[in-house]
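FORM 7B: Structural annotation worksheet

SECTION A. Query
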Amino acid sequence: MLASVVRDEEILSPGTQLKLVRTTVPGAVGESLAEADIRNRTICTVVAAERNGSVVTNIGASFVIESGDELVVAGTDENISRFHRWFAS
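SECTION B. Predicted structure
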């Protein structure tokens, strides 16, 4: 999201409610974040991942999602719902 601000794109306006959720992503296991294309498909941002009890916050596009990983995802209610439709089933 910060990158969008730097590029002068309006992604949040006053009153926008941003949520952080922790969720598994069975629909993207085995894919990198770039391959899953989460940002373009859902307008959500992955801010961290928990793997084997450790939280990883410096994840990049090459981070490969493994079975059992939980991602921490930021987005609006609508975007989080879109994320769940794409990846949580």
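SECTION C. Observations
The domain at 2-6+19-87 is CATH 3.30.70.1450 (Alpha-Beta Plaits). Confidence is low (pLDDT under 50) at residues 1-9.

SECTION D. Sign-off
Analyst initials: ____
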